[in-house]
Design a protein that fits this description.
Elements lengths: L1 E2 L10 H7 L1 H4 L10 H21 L6 E4 L2 H19 L5 E5 L4 H12 L3 E5 L9 H21 L5 H7 L3 E4 L13 H10 L3 E5 L18 E5 L10 E5 L25 H16 L1 H22 L4 E2 L17 H6 L6 E5 L5 H10 L2 E2 L15 H5 L4 H5 L1 E5 L6 H19 L1
Helix pairs in contact: 1-9, 3-9, 4-5, 6-8, 10-15, 12-15
Length: about 425
C-alpha cells in the first residue's frame, strides 16, 4: 500500500505508542483522584501539558486539552459568542474566510442562524486571504462600535476598547485541501489593530511549519494529535492568558473548570510524545517533503495533459514566502510541505480515487470531513475554479518516507486512470 492521505490522518508513531502503553493498563487511575495512583495519571497529564507548551513557547496554563481539532474550533468560536451572550450586550461578530474547514464554517453558520453577524472574507486564486477585505470588515465593525460608544458614553475609553473583543477573526494557518499557508503575522496585526480576538485553526500546520504565537499575535489556536502521528481523539486549544472566556463543557473541574470530563490520559501522553518528535525533526522532515512535493508536481504536469496545480505553484513562486531568518520557511513558498493538489479536467476526482485504490494507492479529493458530500469542494470554488474543475480535484498528502519509486508508480497510476476515464 502507498498511503498518500496524511492530511486526513497519520499512522501512530512508535514513540507515541510506547509513551501511551503504560496508561492503558498499568497507570490507569483517574487523574482527578487524590490518592497516589490517580496522581500518577495527573502527573502524566501535566507533564504532557508542559511539554507541548514549551514547544509553542507559551505557558502550560494556556494549554487546554480537547477531543480533537473540531472540538477546539467549536470551543474557540462558541466562547466568544457565549461571552457576549452572558454579558447580555451586543452579540459577537464572527469574521472568517471562505476556505475554512467545515468545523469553522458550519459553527459560524450555526450561530448566524441564531442572529450572530458573520462576515466571510474572500481569497485569491492561490488561496491567500484578501487582507484589504479583512481590514474593511474590521474597520466597519470598529466604526459601528465607536458610533455606539459616542451615542451611549457609559464606559471609559479603556473599557470601551476592551468591548471590541466581541469581534472574532478565525482564519486557518494552512489550508487542508490546497496547502496554502496564510499570512498569520499580518492577520494578527490587523486583528489587534482593531481590538479583535484572533483564532487560528492550526490543525494542518501544527508540527509541520514553525508557528510563533507571540509574533503572530494569536489569541486562540486549535491543534490535533492524529495529524502528527499521535492518537486520534485528542487535541488542544491554546487560550492566551488574560482572555476571559466562559466554560465550554460543564461538570467537573477538569481543565481549570473550562472543559469538564475525565481526561484522556493515554491520548494526551501520546499527543505530547508525537508533538515532541514532530517539532524536533520538523525542518529535516520538511526539507525532504518539499523535495518530494515539488517532484510530484513536476512529474504530474509532465505526464498528464491539462493537469493544473491548485493553490501556489512552487515552480513559479520565487519570492513568495521568503524568510531571511529561515531557509526552510523560504523553501515552502507558502505551501505546506506535505501537500500536492491538482485538478484533472475531463474526469471526476472520485473516479480517479477508486482506480487508484485498486492499485493500492490511498489518496483523497479533499477534506476527509467532507467525504460523501455530493457538492464540489468549497475551497476550489472559492479560489475561482469552475464546478467542473472542482469535481476533478485530487489531493496527495505525503510523508518523507515516500520513495521516488513509489512516487513514479503513483504518477503512472494517475496517468493511466485519467486516460481510461477520458476514453
Amino acid at each position: 500500500m502507498i498511503y498518500l492521505d496524511n492530511a486526513a490522518t497519520t499512522a501512530l508513531s512508535e514513540s507515541a505508542r510506547n509513551a501511551m502503553e503504560p496508561y492503558f493498563s498499568t497507570h490507569y487511575g483517574n487523574p482527578s483522584s487524590i490518592y497516589r495512583f490517580g496522581q500518577e495519571a495527573r502527573k502524566a497529564v501535566e507533564e504532557s501539558r508542559q511539554s507541548i507548551a514549551a514547544l509553542l513557547r507559551v505557558s502550560p496554563r494556556e494549554i487546554y486539552f480537547t477531543g480533537g481539532g473540531t472540538e477546539s474550533d467549536n470551543w474557540a468560536i462558541s466562547s466568544v459568542v457565549l461571552e457576549r451572550a452572558l454579558k447580555k450586550e451586543k452579540s459577537a461578530h464572527l469574521i472568517t474566510s471562505t476556505i475554512e474547514h467545515p468545523a469553522v464554517l458550519r459553527t459560524c453558520a450555526f450561530f448566524e442562524s441564531l442572529g450572530v453577524k458573520v462576515s466571510r472574507i474572500p481569497v485569491d486564486q492561490k488561496g491567500f486571504l484578501d487582507l484589504e477585505a479583512l481590514e474593511r470588515a474590521l474597520q466597519e465593525e470598529s466604526s459601528l462600535r465607536e458610533r455606539e460608544e459616542h451615542s451611549f458614553p457609559s464606559k471609559s475609553g479603556e473599557e470601551a476598547k476592551k468591548e471590541r473583543s466581541h469581534c472574532l477573526v478565525s482564519v486557518m494557518a494552512a489550508n487542508n485541501e490546497i496547502g496554502t499557508i496564510e499570512n498569520l503575522k499580518e492577520i494578527g496585526r490587523l486583528a489587534k489593530k482593531y481590538g479583535a480576538v484572533f483564532h487560528t485553526d492550526a490543525v494542518q500546520a501544527f508540527g509541520q511549519i514553525p508557528l510563533d504565537i507571540e509574533e503572530m499575535q494569536i489569541d486562540l489556536l486549535s491543534a490535533s494529535s492524529h495529524k502528527i502521528h499521535g492518537p486520534k481523539g485528542v487535541g488542544l486549544l491554546y487560550i492566551r492568558k488574560g482572555l476571559k472566556l466562559p466554560s465550554f463543557l460543564h461538570g467537573g473541574a477538569q481543565e481549570r473548570g473550562l472543559r469538564a470530563g475525565t481526561e484522556n490520559v493515554p491520548g494526551i501522553v501520546g499527543f505530547a510524545a508525537a508533538a515532541k518528535e514532530a517539532f524536533s525533526t520538523m525542518e529535516e522532515r520538511g526539507r525532504k517533503k518539499v523535495a518530494l512535493r515539488d517532484l510530484f508536481f513536476k512529474r504530474l504536469l509532465e505526464e498528464i495533459p491539462g493537469a493544473k496545480i491548485s493553490g501556489v505553484n512552487p515552480a513559479e513562486a520565487e519570492g513568495i514566502g521568503e524568510s531571511p531568518e529561515s531557509p526552510f520557511l523560504s523553501s515552502l513558498h507558502h505551501r505546506l510541505p506535505v501537500n500536492v493538489h491538482i485538478c484533472l479536467p475531463g474526469v471526476e476526482g472520485e473516479s480517479v480515487l477508486l482506480l487508484l485504490d485498486q492499485k493500492g494507492i490511498c489518496a483523497s479529493s479533499g477534506s476527509a470531513c467532507a467525504s460523501g458530500s455530493l457538492e464540489p469542494s468549497h475551497v476550489l470554488l472559492a479560489i475561482g475554479k469552475s464546478h467542473e474543475e472542482a469535481y476533478s480535484g485530487l489531493r496527495l498528502s505525503l510523508e518523507e518516507t515516500l520513495t521516488e519509486e513509489e512516487l513514479e508508480y503513483t504518477v503512472r497510476a494517475i496517468k493511466e486512470a485519467v486516460e481510461k476515464l477520458r476514453g
